[in-house]
Amino acid sequence: MTRVVVIASLLALRVSAQGSPGLPFVINTWGGPFTAATDAAFLSLKNPTTSALDAVQIGCATCEKNQCDGSVGYGGSPDENCETTLDAMIMDGTTMKSGSVAGLRRIRDAIAVARAVLEYTTHTMLAGDLATQFAISNGFRASNLSTPEQEARCAAWREENCQPNYRTNVFPDPKTSCGPYTGVSLNSSAPGYKKAINPDATQASHDTISMISIDASGVMAAGTSTNGATWKVPGRVGDGPITGSGSYVDGEVGGCGATGDGDIMMRFLPCYQAVENLRLGMSPKEAAEDAVKRILRKFPQTASGIVVTSAKGEHGGAGSGWTFTYAFRGGNMNATEVVRVPPVNPVVEAIRMQA
Question: What are the positions of the active site (predicted)?
Answer without folding.
Answer: 208 (nucleophile)
